[in-house]
Amino acid sequence: MRQVVVIHGGDSFETYEEYLQSLRDFPIELEGSKGWKSGLGETLGPEYQVILPRMPNAMNARYLEWKLWFEKYIPLLHDGVILVGHSLGGSFLAKYLSTETFPRKIAGTFLIAPPFDTDTGRKLIEFNVPPTPSKLSEQGGEIFLYHSTDDPIVEYAQFEKFESALPNAHARSFTDRGHFLQDEFPKLVADIKSLG
């Protein structure tokens, strides 16, 4: 069975006051969409095991906390694992695989609308990706990048920075996906299945 680990997005603030203001401004919805992440296991089928860790304090994420939590899953993973990161989760994976040695063979790394070093003008604090992520290129398997020109959360220029830093990655650009919060993501499913 092929393992797919999906790291969700989050937010990160430089000061506690910025975090509190974000909580004040955050819109609440009683009914939201299911989202492609929660349905990915069903969409991929029974030959895939989709693992969806809930990263700590996603509303004010800290890299070290996410690193510690992510590393708890590594002993449960097999060679050929597929890593998927959305938004800040993509930045986390890009930084982690650029600075740490991953002890399993990675079949593919999928980075969906991740900030590289800014998030629409706000600093990423601890999640900045190294300017030259050569270790990610070496150990990340097949690397796929996804972004949409109409993303209202992470500016498209961040995608261009990833493209420049990872010239061998498969870059997928869209015009109508926003921040990839839809219920389905058929291109991602097809790309995951293309790894065999």
Structure explained in plain terms:
By secondary structure, this protein is an alpha/beta fold. It has one domain (2-194): Alpha/Beta hydrolase fold, catalytic domain (Rossmann fold). Helix content is 34%, strand content 20%. It has 7 helices and 8 strands; from the N terminus they run E-H-H-E-H-E-H-E-E-E-H-E-H-E-H. The chain has helices spanning 16-25, 36-44, 63-73, 88-99, 134-139, 156-165, 186-194; strands at 2-7, 48-51, 81-86, 106-112, 118-119, 122-123, 142-148, 170-174. The chain has a 6-stranded parallel beta sheet with strand order 2-1-3-4-7-8, with helices on both faces. It has a two-stranded antiparallel sheet with strand order 5-6. Strand 5 and strand 6 (122-123) form a beta hairpin. The chain is globular and about 45 Å long. The N and C termini lie close together (12 Å).
Give the helices and strands, then pairings.
Layout: E1 2-7, H1 16-25, H2 36-44, E2 48-51, H3 63-73, E3 81-86, H4 88-99, E4 106-112, E5 118-119, E6 122-123, H5 134-139, E7 142-148, H6 156-165, E8 170-174, H7 186-194
Parallel strand pairs: 1-2, 1-3, 3-4, 4-7, 7-8
Antiparallel strand pairs: 5-6
Write a brief caption for the model:
This protein is an alpha/beta fold and 196 residues long. Helix content is 34%, strand content 20%.
